[in-house]
Design brief:
By secondary structure, this protein is of the alpha+beta class. It folds into 2 domains: 126 residues, 3-Layer(aba) Sandwich (Creatine Amidinohydrolase, Chain A, domain 1); 236 residues, Creatinase/methionine aminopeptidase superfamily (Creatine Amidinohydrolase). The chain has 10 helices and 20 strands. Strands 4-3-2-1-5-6 form a 6-stranded mixed sheet. It has a 4-stranded mixed sheet with strand order 8-9-12-20, with helices on one face. Strands 7-10-11 form a 3-stranded antiparallel sheet. The two termini are 25 Å apart.
Length: 409
């Protein structure tokens, strides 16, 4: 196995002091984040940015919504950034929260009536030479209906489609962001370790998934990064699947894909375990996936040693070639990895379908090759890696062992 050092990691759940320190780090970093966005606005000759992504809202303003809460929050949490100020929308349900979390922003009320308030909001902002004439909008997240209503409300202001502007900024991680991803990894690692004695033939996927969730939530996670995946036997061939009532059986594989959330930041790990003595087929597949992951690690280590950054396409190709050479190219359909932070899936991406640009840095992303044989079995191994070629850094944040792990014997 390729040796990728394990990053320094916490040994206990985050404390109140940790949470306060991370909040202070975000407050200190926010002016620089906004400055980078304003540079992009100037380059694109637009006067303001209208955002709706809850992750972008938290990153730029401090206002936080829970997973899924944006579906019932109305206009609350949406924001505008101009050259001079930040405006956060909040109705009566969220006003006090916005005042507390966004002390540097102007709070404006909007209660499911943004198009009616749109003209007044834009007239209250200062553009490059006074009036706001062009507004960048998160087009991949704003519905066509809302876009049309905003355009009709102030037809003289041009709406400009902006996709990935803030997401590209978020791909480059600050030290306190990496620390929180590492803390979330530590919570998840420990939760799986505590779950191992409960894994035995006859226990259902759903029961194990629920217990793993309980272990994370009661030992430092404020939430799950995403719903726990627990798949056994032939169901492990589902790259994304939900746990069911199927019971674990001896001689099968058991796949967990899960993550914790700590102070807004997430982890993501996949481990494929052996229930009882491994079969030759399953063991061979597991070792193949390890070799594929090692090929990706080796490319990252070489690049970092040379203070260079590879492309996401190139790292994906290195791992994919190993699997293809073993005759399983058709059984590895998804990309090799994805960035992680405030969202479980964010930039950068490592796959066959991304631009051939070098990976940004410092950043964190997953390396998760897999082989899936429909109706038979599936193996995936996923680790999070921090990458910073400027200082020659490649480190694993996931600490649970990659070695063959036999449970329920």
């Amino acid at each position: 196995m390729t040796s990728v050092p394990l990053a320094p990691r916490p040994t206990a759940a985050p404390t109140a002091a940790d949470l306060a320190r991370w909040r202070a780090a975000d407050d200190a970093a926010r002016p620089a984040r906004l400055a980078r966005l304003r540079e992009r606005l100037a380059q694109e000759a637009v006067d303001a940015y209208f955002g709706v992504s809850r992750e972008n809202t938290r990153y730029l303003t401090g206002f936080s919504l829970a997973e899924g809460e944006e579906k019932v929050a109305g206009d609350a949490g949406r924001f505008l950034v101009s050259a001079a100020e930040v405006v956060v929308l909040a109705d009566s349900r969220y006003r006090e929260q916005a005042i507390e979390e966004c002390p540097a922003a102007r709070i404006e009320e909007s209660y499911y009536d943004l198009p009616e308030r749109w003209r007044g909001l834009l007239e209250s902002l200062r553009g490059r030479d006074g009036a706001v004439r062009r507004v960048a909008v998160e087009a991949n997240l704003v519905s066509q209906a809302l876009w049309t209503r905003l355009q009709a409300a102030v037809p003289e202001v041009e709406l400009v489609a902006a996709e990935g502007w803030v997401e590209a900024l978020r791909a480059v991680k600050e030290p306190a962001e990496l620390e929180r991803v590492g803390a979330a990894c530590a919570v998840a690692d420990a939760a799986l370790e505590r779950l191992l004695p409960a894994i035995r033939p006859g226990v259902s996927e759903r029961t194990l998934a629920l217990q793993l969730e309980w272990e994370m939530r009661t030992h430092g996670a404020e939430a799950l990064a995403f719903d726990v995946t627990c798949l056994s036997g032939p169901r492990a061939a589902l790259p994304h699947g939900s746990p069911g009532e199927r019971c674990v059986a001896a001689g099968e594989l058991l796949l967990f894909d899960f993550g914790a959330q700590v102070a807004g930041y997430r982890s993501d790990m996949t481990r494929t375990l052996f229930v009882g003595a491994p079969t030759r087929r399953d063991l061979d597949l597991y070792r193949l996936v390890v070799r594929a992951q090692d090929a990706a690690f080796e490319m990252l280590l070489r690049s970092a040693a040379d203070h260079e950054s590879p492309t996401g396409v190139g790292v994906d190709a290195a791992a994919r070639a190993v699997i293809a050479s073993a005759g399983h190219g058709a059984h590895f359909g998804h990309g090799l990895g994805h960035g992680i932070g405030l969202a479980t899936h964010e930039l950068p991406s490592l796959s066959r379908r991304v631009s051939p640009a070098p990976l940004p840095w410092p950043t964190v992303f997953s390396i998760e090759p897999g082989v899936y044989l429909p109706g038979q079995c599936g193996v995936r191994i996923e680790d999070l890696v921090t990458f910073d070629p400027e200082v020659g850094r490649v480190e694993r944040l996931t600490g649970f062992p990659r070695e063959v792990t036999v449970v329920g014997a």
